[in-house]
Structure formats: C-alpha cells, structure tokens
Amino acid sequence: MRISFLNVGHGDCTIIEHASGRLTLVDVNNCLELDEETLAEVSEYYRGRTSMLVETHGVRTFGMVKEAGYDIELTNPIEFLHKNYPGKDIFRYIQSHPHLDHMNGLEQLKAHNIDIVNFWDTEHDFTPELANDADRASWDEYKRLRRSVNGSPKVLRHSYGASGTFWNQEPDGVNGGDGIDVLHPNPHTLKAIQDSGNVNNLSYVLRVILGKVRIILAGDAEKEVWDDLVSRYGTELKCNVLKASHHGRDSGFHEKAMELMNPKFTIVSVGKKPETDASDKYRKYSENVWSTRWKGNVEITNDVSGYATITSQYDR
After folding, report:
1. Rounded to whole angstroms, how far apart are CA atoms 1 and 305?
2. pTM of the predicted protein model
3. Fewest 10 Å CB contacts: which of 128, 142, 180, 235?
4. Half-sphere exposure of 186 toward its Cβ, with a 13 Å CA cutoff?
5. Which residue numbers in the chain have pLDDT < 50?
C-alpha cells in the first residue's frame, strides 16, 4: 500500500495505491511552472543568502530561483502515473471540491489513455472564472465527467457515514475494502454550505486507513466544517498523518480539531504562504510539518505488518 502526496505547485494531487491493487486519485493539478506565491517565497528565502538571485523590475522566474539553488522540480501527475502504474486506470477519482487548482489538467488523463471508473463529486452550482483556455479545458472535462449518464464513469456523491462495496467494504460485505471513510460532507449542513457560497466547505474530508496508519485528507475545509467534525467525531478524529486543509493556510487551521487529531506528520501542499501561513500553529500539535515545496513528493508505504514508513523526495 502506498500513498503519494505529489509536489504539483499551488494545488493538490494525492495518489493512493490500495492493497487491493486499485488506484484512487484525489484531485489533480498538472502545473508546469511555479506559481507566483512559490516564486515569491523561494525568492525571499534565497535573497540575502546568495548574490545569484537578481530580479528585474520585480519579475521572478524559475530560472532565477534555480540558479540561486532551488532545484525542486514540480511533478507531472500524468508522467508519475505512467511511470509507477503503467497501463492502470484510475478506479476512483475524488474531486475534493470544484476549485481549479484541484482539477487543472483533468482532461489530460483521458488524453493519455487513463480512464476513470468511478467519479466522486458533490452537488453544487458553482462556476469559476476561467482565466485561459487551459482552465476552460479542465472545467469542461469536469462537467463532462460529473454529468455522465451511461456509467462511464459511474458518478457517486457520498456523505459521511456512507458504506459501500470497494471503498470500505469488499463485495462479500466484509468491512475494510480500500479503507476510505467519508467524514464530510454532512447532508444535514450541505444546504447551508451551498447557500453560503463558500466552495471550500464543499470539500470531501476523508479518513484513509493504510494498515495501522490513519490518514486524514482535509481538502480545503474551513472552520464550519471542522466545527461539525469536532462535534460529531471528537476523539475519533485521532490520526497519524494529516494532509493540511487549504494548503496550510490559516483559514484551514482549527485548533480543537488539531488537538484531537494530534498527527505525528502534517503534510502541507505548496508551503509557507506569507501572512496567511499556519505552519507554526500546526507545529504546536504535530511533531513534523512537511511542505511539498521544500520536500518535493512525500510518500507513505506500508509493509505486510501494517506499519508505515514516510519518506520525502528531498531531504530538506
């Protein structure tokens, strides 16, 4: 069993290889260049440490930060899938919520002959601002997938407590399956979330069990979702690894939830975000806070005993 948190720039992409051999892909962001926030942070880190980084009229490029010493390349999810899982389809694609930084490049899966068998989605009527043709291509593919009526893919809209074949049961009804529990959305609060217009709170919050390790994937969930989770689950939120909500921003941090989860590792996609970063707050409750911006891809693997090893692409 293996779970990979990919370094995809400003966005999310998590790939889970289950003991069953099935693949789950939670979000995708096929970003080819560093985003402005990353360039700003990395530039600030190297400024004063080297004379190599010289900006022209405030313009930063990957070439500049690379020359200054930043050599952590982004990971292309399509290339990662072809290299590590050649010929395999995505058994389960989970769109945590409908923001573009969680679905950029979605159309590239089909273009590279990677099929989606099951498509998890939430009910909403959100439409984003499309800045360019790439945004439009990803959004059009998302709309095509979520409106599938012929079972290819099969569209599923789960809420907390849902049980079913393959995601947390085997076909004979035995509990376990691929070890995925849906903690959110809560059908009792979903209408209020939809009415509020806060798309982040549409996020799937998932608990994934890999052997003896509990991992919580929090999407971009904010305070109202965490309040609900704390109220409903309490100490059952305890986990070993947390994928921090909203890329580690303060808006996704919830003190009581962190106290209950108390993860040994907290994984932050992207990294520190000046003025909105909650990394130091996470460190109060988590022994290790790892950023994909500085660690690259982060991977958890399980051996036959069920115990896990966590490694990073770069030792920083």
Report:
1. 11
2. 0.91
3. 235
4. 16
5. 56-57
